């Protein structure tokens, strides 16, 4: 038989798990059937008997998968070292799938197999993040679940256990800490080397991840071998991606970064294309991936718009699953908004709400995310400070983004760059703990009130003339479903807020207050509608949220 003669091994790599629909399991070589979980990255591993004449990274290789609905997906494979090639498949439909390989190497061409896809049993896994078809400015998951994206930047996440092939202890600790507090997306680099700004000299060695021991290329930082790729580095990154997937955390993966002292190959070079294409081939099979071409792409003089356009075309050509694409650079996104799936902004302005609302209104057909708003909560070790370091200020800047209809991203100075305190909640630490808990309340608020149904409203320039619905309130920042639900972010300096809402059928307003710092809801009861109803927060001199349901 052709398969048994040419194929030494074809099996599925999965996590250790008793439930094959939950995680990943291994199958013995030559297994006649494969069972995989819905949305589970599934590795089909092929090993050659003899080395090909061409470069192992240059082989044309992949498979056509045919689903139970007869839909066909062409998935590229990738080299994994030791004459081993992998096709990483992410099934999006239960039932019987068939595949047949294609390749420029005869040994890898025309190989066939079957796969039974069963329901996913991991409650945290909902498939890929997509654009909500009913609300194009919002995200949803592949299974239809709303996605209130709340991101956390950890650029050096790839490095935490790079020297530990046995476990992901440090990586798990920080991911557990952020997941427990409502974050469902990590903004991370494929690779970063070091920073140029001043960092405390007293950072304990175990928390300083500058100059990691492995990089995407063989050799060292000063003398990388751009003619090849470092397979061990990517095998480790696989482990990180699997962990993120199994925790239900989206990996917002920045493929390049220009200001972290990485020695990159020249633009458009064979080495540059090899690296970039390899990342797309290897990681598209993780449904929790979002592609970001580069952090601060047009800064630092490293690349230009034509280069980013070309990189995006490469992603579109190689990615069988059409994962979402953005670029961490509003200069690019604003000029080339037809190239990206959602808009990324970096805005530190003091008038963050109004500028975020401006961006939301300008980009009417796509989600907008402020990836970096200048709020970097301080930690025990000095590193990049930005413009705002107070935990409460940083929290409110996230709320200002959200109430403008824009998704946001959180930074703690001692996890977001090369200094990573991976166990910040360890009771043995003597420093002030970061206020991750604030964001659990933020996620909870927009789980209780589905963010996908809410939109901001730009008020008229005057509070005169109460006719119409373009005032909503005398102050504060509104979100509404356009029918009967109104949320107002009320600044600390407000004595009260007067609302200007349409009168419901029953002429009644159900009033609730929410404290963003404690997560407390205060039920203020039901009151009669008036055209200028005034409400005072139960918490004086603090930011709060007024929630009104019109009955």
In short:
With 551 residues, the protein is of the alpha/beta class. The protein has 9 helices and 30 strands. Strands 13, 14, 15, 16, 17, 18, 19, 20 and 21 form a 9-stranded parallel beta sheet that branches. A 6-stranded antiparallel beta sheet has the order 22-24-25-30-27-28. A 5-stranded mixed beta sheet has the order 2-9-8-4-5, with no helix packed on it.
Describe the protein.
By secondary structure, the protein is an alpha/beta fold. It has 3 domains: 2-118, Immunoglobulin-like, CATH 2.60.40; 129-452, Glycosidases (TIM Barrel); 457-550, Immunoglobulin-like. Helices cover 19% and strands 27% of the residues. The chain has 9 helices and 30 strands. It has helices at 2-6, 169-179, 231-246, 270-283, 305-318, 330-335, 352-362, 391-403, 437-448, and strands spanning 12-13, 35-37, 42-47, 61-66, 72-76, 78-79, 84-89, 95-103, 112-118, 129-132, 135-141, 146-147, 150-153, 185-189, 250-257, 289-295, 325-328, 343-346, 368-372, 376-377, 407-412, 455-456, 472-473, 477-480, 485-490, 497-500, 508-514, 521-528, 533-535, 544-550. A hairpin with a 4-residue loop joins strand 6 (78-79) and strand 7. The N and C termini lie far apart (71 Å). The relative contact order is 0.09. Residues 1-30 have low confidence and may be disordered.
